Give the backbone structure.
Amino acid sequence: MTDDALFRAQAVIASGAKPIVQSFFDEATFTATHVVHDPVSRQAAIIDPVLDFDPASGRTRTASAEVVANYIEKRDLGVAMLMETHAHADHLSAAPWLQARLGGRIVIGREIVTVQKTFGDLFNEPASFARDGSQFDLLLDDGDDLVLGTIKGTALHVPGHTPACMAYVFGDALFVGDTLFMPDYGTARTDFPGGDAAALYRSIRRLMQLPAATRVFLCHDYGASDRAAFAWETSIGDERLHNIHVHDRIEEGEFVAMRQTRDATLTMPRLMLPSVQVNMRAGHLPDAEANGVSYLKLPVNLL
């Protein structure tokens, strides 16, 4: 069976286009937000933006997003898309705030509808909570074409961490979300609802068919014991050779056993419950109640 989407991604990378990528790291959530732009047209995309949130007080702030916005405005970039690689469980999305300031369409993979159905039920959301992805401006399928000015791109569906995970290719740059981490840290967990270790392995092996020199930009880094600084850029070649969980010599069964054993030891992300409720709404808070206040739910003794 021909993998047309992978062929499209390989062709995009082979074009030789090299977009400019600037990354912003939020140590509070260990999240890297990336701004990728075409130096010719100056069209840009923002990938995985962070809204600051204090769970103790329930307060949101836009300090992290403001740094991104200031970078874009200072360089007179035009924002075409605000792209989510998935419905994050570790930070709230700042996409709506950035959209109001800079424009652009909020984009995610079409399988967000699966996440909305799963977590809509988990949080006992009312029928007024749409489970059709309509909170987003654009839903992408595997192999859909993307463009930033003169730079072509494509979308790749990479399920495993969640059913809705997407990777985005622009020129020689690949944005993988939580699918991969730095080679010395490994791979994403697969124990969230809808996660699948075997699917993650296959998604990663698919990505590793891209050219070795492909620049790979990650959504997270949690650091490694023998590395002094956080990092969020690697390459397909380095991942294939050195990723401690999924290098070229690791077979699927070995990976699945490792991932399931490791996941059983992990605690729930600190911001998972508020994050998912917001991110499955494209970064919007739940509708305000009669008193004008939005509320986030905390299911008791459920998870």
Observations:
- DSSP finds eight helices and 15 strands in the chain.
- The mean pLDDT is 96.
- The longest strand covers residues 20-26.
